[in-house]
Amino acid sequence: MAFPFSLVIFDLDGTLVDSAADIAESVNRTLSDWRLPTYDVAQITGWIGEGSRQLITYAFRDAGSDADIDDVMPGFLEHYAETALDAVVYDGVRETLAALHAQGVKLAVCTNKNEEFVRPLLDARGLSPYIDGITGGNTLPERKPSGVPLKYLAQQAGVPLDKVLMVGDSESDMLAARDAGVPYVLVTYGYPKTLDVRNAGALAVIDRMPALLDLH
Question: Partner of 142 for a Cys bridge, out of 68, 93, 148, 173, CB 3.0 to 4.6 A?
């Protein structure tokens, strides 16, 4: 049976790739630059999902610093550029993207990570051949949880919203999908923070990406 959607928009961190360790490393390097305490990966993972500026804001405020985040960001982005390609593709993701692509389904990535870091990571992990469109946190005036990036990707792909599916792991993905008026699938293995993914109104909740192919 043919896949029921013409465009699938994926979140990146916590959905397609596990980037928690490299993000944590870049945050801790930045904290060390400012002579602040560092954090373990689990703590920093809880701050992922709202873009790099908010991530650094959480880290610095938790560390008791009132530093101007505008002064902090250049150093963080420099450190992140050094670690951004270390993310690991989740099991079954590459095969799922290939299968959807082979069926003629258009695929896109919508992330709050700055766009300049997205394509190099997709290239490095062999995912770029399957991806038709990208929006990062700095691509448009609005980002997730706004539905604007999803609507933009649908327009770019020439696909009506009733044929679009969002796949993510967090509240910002859920809210973006709701704002755009598209159904969404949530994965259980990402960075959900406090979101109860099994009771969040998703079309489906999956433990591994290949289960996405079972939608009909």
Answer: 148
